[in-house]
Amino acid sequence: ETLIKKIDENNIDSEIIEEMAKLLRDGKTVIFPTETVYGLGANALDEEAAKKIYEAKGRPSDNPLIVHIAEKKEIYSLVESVNEKAEKLINEFWPGPLTVILPKKDIIPDVTSGGLETVAVRMPSNKIANALIKAAGIPIAAPSANISGRPSPTRAEHVKKEMTGRVSGIIMGGDCCFGLESTVVDLTGETPMILRPGSITKEMMEEIVGNVDMDSSLLKKEDNIKAKAPGMKYTHYSPKADVFIIRGEKESIIRKINELYEEKSDENQKIGVICMSDIARKIKTDEIIDLGDTYEKVAANLFDSLIQMDEKGADIVYAEAFSTEGVGQAIMNRLMKSAGYKVIEAE
Ligand code: TXA
Ligand code: MG
């Protein structure tokens, strides 16, 4: 039985918050909105509670969880120490879509840290998330609220559809404004290292703490893309449709997609396209989703567009490739995974 309630972020109903917070205190799971994606939360300090998260998602239990807090100072009870760079980044970007990794204290159980000696901590800016964590009075472990392998949910309807019956509570709280998961930065070494790009970019962090590195595997996979590499099916952010990224100049992308659409041999195959507004009008296809005219909008709409393509019954989705500047880094990281790194060059 899942308790499902709507909350307006601008007029928060504290009775519902308390009801959901009680579920969390009782060791149960609650899905709640954040500014990035919906999270599937449980008491981060309670092993049995944290285990329920993995069960609900069907997630491998060696993948560590992010611990969410409601106030900056709570981090001191979770990690061994907060070094100077961590302090600066937290002061600049919290509350917000930045997750920091630091050596953990013993109160963090292995289930939450995936057996690691470090823990990931983040303070969300979404007001519902903040009110819920505060009311619960405990740190909340929360991965994205999707079944493992599927696109992360950024709309209330996504979680209601996919997770009803799998968790104790769902707070339906509108759309997630950033739409991509938080930037994860490892602060255990001399130089901060980005493990997952997000809306807080490398450049934004470098302004605060100087040099920031990016996990080389994130970049390498990008560099090593093989056109249509068969069998490279990564189960990450995957819709039911087969996703291909079309890369090139805008005009070439339009031409290539229209060509691919003309060439499709099987009339029963439904083709979908996701792209920015400037080329959306010029594309011939069965289903099209306009992601918007800025990278911020593309980020906010990306996962929803993949989920919508499933609902429209698309068999193949062609996605425009984006630049990897700024937030484009995070967009392409997610898009590449959802496409299993399949890229078609448009000349
Ligand atoms: O925006 C977000 O971060 C969302 C919302 C709900 O807050 N949460 C989220 O959680 O994306 P999840 O579990 O889907 O992703 C957590 C990421 C994973 O890639 C995990 O491997 C990494 O953070 N991570 C967590 N703890 C870590 C640690 N101690 N060391 C290295 N990576 C860690
Ligand atoms: Mg996830």
Automatic annotation (TrEMBL):
GO CC terms of this entry: cytoplasm
What is the predominant subcellular site recorded for this chain?
Answer: cytoplasm
Which key words are in the record?
ATP-binding, Cytoplasm, Nucleotide-binding, Nucleotidyltransferase, Transferase, tRNA processing
- Give any GO molecular function from the UniProt entry: L-threonylcarbamoyladenylate synthase
What Enzyme Commission number(s) appear in the record?
A: 2.7.7.87
Kindly give the InterPro entries that the UniProt entry links to this protein: DHBP_synth_RibB-like_a/b_dom (IPR017945), Sua5-like_dom (IPR006070), Sua5/YwlC_C (IPR038385), Sua5_C (IPR005145), T(6)A37_SUA5 (IPR010923), TC-AMP_synthase_SUA5 (IPR050156)
The reaction(s) this protein catalyses: L-threonine + hydrogencarbonate + ATP = L-threonylcarbamoyladenylate + diphosphate + H2O
EC main group: transferase
Instruction: Report residues binding ATP.
Output: R59, N63, T118, S144, S152, R196, Y237
What role does this protein play? Required for the formation of a threonylcarbamoyl group on adenosine at position 37 (t(6)A37) in tRNAs that read codons beginning with adenine.
The name on file for this protein is Threonylcarbamoyl-AMP synthase
Say which species the protein is native to: Peptacetobacter hominis
